[in-house]
Amino acid sequence: MSSDSKWIWSQHRAQLLRLVLHWGHRCLAGSLPNRCLLCHQSLNSTEAGFCHVCLQTGLYHSPICLGCGKSIQLELEYCGECQKHQPRKVIAPCSYHQGFGPWIAAIKYQGQLAALPILCQALVARIGQLEQQGLITLPQVIVPVPLHSNRLRQRGFNQAWLIAHELSQRLQLPLVDQGLTRRQDTRPQAGLNGVQRRRNLQDAFELNADFAYQRIALVDDVVTTGTTVAEIAQLFEARYVHVQIWCLARAEAPGLLEITDL
Fold first, then answer.
1. Cβ-proximal residues to 185 (8 Å cutoff; 6+ apart), any chain
2. Which family is this protein grouped under (predicted)?
């Protein structure tokens, strides 16, 4: 078997293992008492992860700038400041700091996937709302932020891939996990400042020359400073590929949600 064939087989095997883990967690969750992860009240048969009250409490309740995440008074693409340079659009259903942050972190660091389906459902609803309002256009494909093979072996799954797979099923959009690779096993971004994050990810990703799409949604679990998605987006944009960012939550700067802007 050639080295290329071995690499392709290893990627397919890793993908299969991620799917088995994903559905294994779902089956296990289905056998346990159905309680809200936040308030621990019993859930009815149509609820999962969070009860309706806790879910609605944690979601955005006012228009959000798709650039910086600031609260604005009207449902527009950008706040006044972001209209000047129109940054990449980040689509998320909630703030990382409004209650769901610990459960999103638990997906990545503890393999606890109970919150993943309901938050993906909330993200799908947010995407549909923005599309209906003409503020975004659906992409051709969904692309998860890749993990380095070493990190994938250690963790056993890529949370961005699991989220992208869920979104792909719900939105009937193709998931493309070939072509974009992480060629450097960088240290974790958590705890690094902005400059350190950029240096840490410099030249960390590679995009194959034959990538064939013009509009993509780049998927990650959470966007904080945006360094990771920016590093990847630049590779696509250098080839005139339009990129929007989809995530379960964004960790905006403190106090930003209390600021309103026309």
1. 148, 149, 150, 151
2. Belongs to the ComF/GntX family.
CB atoms within 10 A of CB 215: 14
Do 20 and 12 meet the contact criterion of CB atoms below 8 Å apart? Answer: no
How far apart CA 94 and CA 57 sit, in angstroms, is 10
- In this structure, the strands spanning 180-182 and 205-207 are antiparallel
Instruction: Give the bridge partners for 249, in sequence order.
Output: 222
pLDDT, mean of each 10-residue run, the chain (262 residues):
52 59 53 78 84 94 93 93 94 93 93 93 97 97 93 90 97 95 71 58 83 96 90 94 97 70 54
3-state secondary structure of 17: helix
Q: Record the tokens describing residue 114, joined without a space.
A: 């109970």
CA 258/CA 262 separation, integer angstroms: 13
Residues 141/179, Cβ–Cβ less than 8 Å: no
- Find the angle CA(100)-CA(102)-CA(104) to the nearest 5 degrees: 70
